[in-house]
Amino acid sequence: MSFVSLGGDAGSKPTFFEVYAADKLVPSLRAAVIYSLSVFGQRRAWVQRLLEREDEVVALVVLLLDRHSLRALEGTFAESLYGLKRERWRPRPGAAAAAAPQQQPAGAAAGCGGGAPLGRGGASLALLCSVLLPYLQSKAERLYTRHAARAGVLGLALRRASPRLPPVRGGAAPGPLAAAWDAALALYVRAYPFLHAAIEASKFSYQLAYLLDASDYNSPMMRLLGQRLVRMSAPDMARLENEKQRARGARLAAVEQRGSRVARGVGRAWLRARFAVADHTSSALILAILEWWYASAEDRLAAGKAIPPPPAPPPPAPHPDGVGLPEDPATCPLCRRARVNPAALAVSGYVFCYPCVFGWVAQRRCCPVTRQPATLDHVRRLFEAL
């Protein structure tokens, strides 16, 4: 299934807008996968647990889709939907200008370079980059978001509100490894914005060069891989379809050579089910992407008409005899560890671990930070929204 009509020769260079649309389909695919999991999670509790590992789930889905697409269509899932494929490309210096007025088929570009099929090695490198790089980028962004609050305005306010913290559990000071880890995190938080800006600037420069027809590569990674995008022609599609049907016919013929009739029937049914899933997976994911797209558009329209909520009142000041606030806002004030299963006290608004605050309120009937009277009915579980 493709968003574009196929035609022209295989060496025709895709426009910037085709390449840009294919790149922007990957975030939509991620959002569609998370949206589908959230819908199924309303009926199946075990699906809800997958949302806690959404980066790994999305990476696995992209791995399966791109692996099948690179083998069958010589391009990633997003690229194949727009009728694009990859080829190995090594331009010859000084020859691109002489070959620019003429449009040649792939691999015969009048001395401007050599195009060749990806091969198994090129497809493996493309698959590794398409799966691993977005996964690492998402993890890096999450790590920065989690620890940037300590260096921000909220972390500064919490440090000023609680200048003297109680000792950590056990009374021991942080060891050298913990201090080195904190220093590395602080350095990472300071360096990440510059590194992210450098990466985005590099991508922008390659996209601008591709838009101005000054480069055959639309991204730095494509240049490092030595690959470029070309349009998939109708003969290419026919060739790939014939190869796919021949491979499927060979597998069905191998199943027919089994001795048992039951084994032959089960083998045929299994292979045909696999073929049907492979043929219709793209259509199902496209429908999920469109459903998420229109649902988010309706939410944006409704949000524009909604009355903005009033500003939140300032939090109550900590009591001098309270437990105090930790330096890290993601840490529980009671156990001094990263919050797990968070819960808030309605009388004060401060967030703790659910087991910690439940036991404290059950015994002392007050907020640990402000010492305001509280009961177990004031303990409210918190859940992260998608």
Automatic annotation (TrEMBL):
Where does this chain mainly localize? Answer: membrane
Biological process according to GO: protein import into peroxisome matrix; protein monoubiquitination
Where composition is biased (Pro residues), the residues are: 307-319
Locations listed in the record: Peroxisome membrane
Swiss-Prot/TrEMBL keywords: Membrane, Metal-binding, Peroxisome, Protein transport, Transmembrane, Transmembrane helix, Transport, Zinc, Zinc-finger
| Cellular component GO terms, alphabetical | peroxisomal importomer complex; peroxisomal membrane
Q: How does it sit in the membrane?
A: Multi-pass membrane protein
Domain Pex N-terminal stretches: 24-296
Q: What Gene Ontology molecular function terms does this protein carry?
A: ubiquitin-protein transferase activity; zinc ion binding
- Recorded family membership: Belongs to the pex2/pex10/pex12 family.
Q: What does this protein do?
A: Component of a retrotranslocation channel required for peroxisome organization by mediating export of the PEX5 receptor from peroxisomes to the cytosol, thereby promoting PEX5 recycling.
What name goes with this protein? Peroxisome biogenesis protein 12
